[in-house]
Amino acid sequence: MLKPEIEDGETVLPDPAFRADVLAGLATEPKAIQARWLYDHRGSELFEDITDVPEYYPTRTETALLRETCPKVAEIAGKGRAVVEFGSGSSAKTPILLEAAEPAAYVPIDISGDFLRASADALRDTFPALPIHPVEGNFLQPIALPDSVADTPKLGFFPGSTIGNMTASAGVDLLRAMRTSLGEGSLLLIGMDRVKDESVLIPAYDDSAGVTAAFNLNLLHRINRELDGHIPVDSFRHKAVWNDGLARVEMHLEAIEDVAFTVADTPFTMAAGETIHTENSHKYTPRSARLLLNAGGWTPIAEWTDPKDWFALILAEA
Ligand code: AVJ
Predict the structure, then answer these.
(1) DSSP secondary structure string, 17-76?
(2) Which of the chain's termini has less CB crowding within 10 Å, N or C?
């Protein structure tokens, strides 16, 4: 029987969906576990640390690009829209848009109420006059926005190339759900990471300080902690590979020797060299980015990139 474990003073209850996903993912061939499970409390901290490592270019490239771009977005969009952010908002990027867009309201949507409240509180200090209406919910589905912004034109915000975690078909579903949530005539400002040389991509996902490795390996620790797992974590290594056919960086956990272990009393074996696929980070060309947006019901109307063409911000219309 699984017992709740105490960690950071918090009670961690075994999540039945996590358990089901892990047991199914370890039983499939090849093994794969959904990327969402990387982001527990510790995983989210480690991701924050990744955004500071020198090799991980996306966050700092996009942030610098937003500083240049948001005034231009505001010119096109006009002031007084409701900014609707998909995700709870990051300390650095959101204020850049809010500063430039002078919105009538800010509506962050996130599945984690805790993250939502924390980021809303921080923004209230910076923008005391701005009405903030957090919505707790899963934005993969169409979501009802607060009545107070029903008649306000919307500007959606989806930075971070978070869409890159999704396959094309899941990404199209998400874009269509966003279109339904925001309504026809809305605008969406989305960050999408560009295809670039492997010599830049691989180090970004396999940094020399080992922060990304720790982020990936934390999944095994999490399984051991929360699911009564007995995975020998030291027998695994982090691996980042460029899948050229599917234009994505893949993260895997590779067994460095033959291993046998149990998770929730279920036995598994892996041969040396076998991997568990844990995350995809799709990269886009100018055309593939526009095609994805189009397939999702959005018409790109403007786009901006940094001087190296490493990261793109696209403004699209529903
Ligand atoms: C949060 C999905 C945008 O794909 O670049 C970073 C996640 N994983 N390093 C990305 C991630 C390993 C990140 N996203």
Answers:
(1) HHHHHHHHHHHSSSEE--GGGG-SHHHHHHHHHHTTSTT--HHHHHHHHHHHHHHHHHHH
(2) N
Taking each helix axis as running N to C, give the angle between helix 93-101 and helix 58-77, from 0 to 180 degrees, rounded to the nearest 10: 10
Segment-wise mean pLDDT, segments of 10 residues, the chain, 318 residues: 43 83 98 95 94 97 98 97 90 94 96 86 94 94 96 97 97 98 97 98 98 98 97 98 98 98 98 98 98 98 98 98
Q: How far is the CA of 314 from the centre of ligand 1 (A)?
A: 19
ipTM of the complex: 0.99
Which residue carries 């844990």 as its tokens?
A: 278
> What residues line ligand 1, using a CB cutoff of 6 Å?
50, 58, 160-162, 164-165, 205, 212, 279, 281
Please state, as a whole number, how many other Cβ atoms lie within 10 Å of the Cβ of residue 49. Answer: 16
Q: Pairing between strand 248-255 and 10-12?
A: unpaired
Of 210, 159, 214, 153, give the one whose Cα is nearest residue 186: 153
Q: Is 6 helix (H, G, I), strand (E, B) or coil?
A: strand
Give Dmax over CA atoms of the chain in angstroms: 60
Angstrom distances, CA of residue 202 to CA of 56, 134, 239, 248, 312: 10, 36, 9, 11, 19
Mutate to test the pocket of ligand 1, among 163, 281, 282, 311 (most ligand atoms within 8 A of CB): 281
- Whether residue 103 is preceded by a cis peptide bond, meaning omega within 30 degrees of 0, is no
First to last CA, the chain: 50
